[in-house]
DNA sequence: CATTTCATTGACTCCAAACTCATTGACTTT
DNA sequence: AAAGTCAATGAGTTTGGAGTCAATGAAATG
């Protein structure tokens, strides 16, 4: 059985991770440990009781985030679904994490190396799902003869482009605003 | 006529901008003024004689970069060229500035606001050229009925995705390695 | 030639952020 | 209930980068 202390410690750890998620989503990964401590309502030193370095905090946070978003996508993706419903599911998942995901894709190159592995992992899971859906369409000869990786990279490229250039397209959530347009036109692109 | 002093000052200014370009291309925009001073072979203080703040240095650098790349693209784009040759011209220009451009698109959101205007400007010029080329193709009914901005954003999205995720695709220059593949498949996507 | 201007220097200040650690008091163990 | 443990604290330390400024000497001026 867990002691009060263990329970308390885990709760504090979660508090810090939750706060870090929010702060990074709002301010980007250049936000400071001070901001995170304030948001979590713990003292500055407490952060370093739970995470030896900031980089370690970021890595732990990203690992949690990776699992969560992957599982979320998995839940929303049904077996034998159509291309349309899968793309919609994908965007719906991203909408839930939009601010944080936006920071992630736009700052991934300045994050520690381990962060990139998490990022690759997230993309792999999307790739896997999309692959299944497209293969069925290809058999039915409705999708063009284009290498799978181009089909995949076009989709992520388009979505990421809208996300990183959010300010060009929308004041609030670019995905919410352009969801249908993006799906419709992307499908037009890859279908015959 | 310019005095020796004026000439010298302008030369030093250029020296600093050239060094900053190289350092930022190699290290990203989190590189320090110390690194730039060392690369330019001037003392640290000299940088602040020419630029009141780091942000100002970055803005001046980006304005120069914007003009240069826009002009370069303009020179390489002939009148009445085909879609293929324009896309090739675009990639060829980007290859010349690849490292710096990569940093720019991946860190644009953490740069000062003025930097974004330069970035928007660069994209507008590409958009303008692409627009002309595509319109001709559309008249000849070879390009699908898809909104122009989606056509444009798919292209930039694809290119930027390859650039920001360089490490997934190539050890050296992702554009050099995948140029033909990108052009060929992108055209397949947008043509009937 | 004497005087003034000014580009350059680099040691210095200032500041902000990451990380430390002695102290505290609540919880756990015996 | 006494002794021991440990999560949390927050003031203090360290580090490193941005920006300052008095001094220097070469160039400009009269």
Helices and strands in order:
The structure is a homodimer of 192-residue chains.
Chain A: H1 4-27, H2 33-40, H3 44-50, H4 54-76, H5 83-96, H6 98-107, H7 113-139, H8 148-164, H9 166-169, H10 174-190
Chain A binds a DNA duplex (30 and 30 nucleotides) through helix 1 and helix 3.
Task: Identify the notable features of this structure and list them briefly.
192 residues; mainly alpha; elongated; Tetracycline Repressor, domain 2
Explain what you see.
2 copies of one chain form a homodimer. Chain A has 192 residues and is mainly alpha-helical. Chain A has 2 domains: 52 residues, Homeodomain-like (Arc Repressor Mutant, subunit A, Orthogonal Bundle), CATH 1.10.10.60; 130 residues, Tetracycline Repressor, domain 2. Chain A contains 10 helices and no strands. Chain A starts with a helix and ends with a helix. The relative contact order of chain A is 0.10. Chain A binds a DNA duplex (30 and 30 nucleotides) through helix 1 and helix 3.
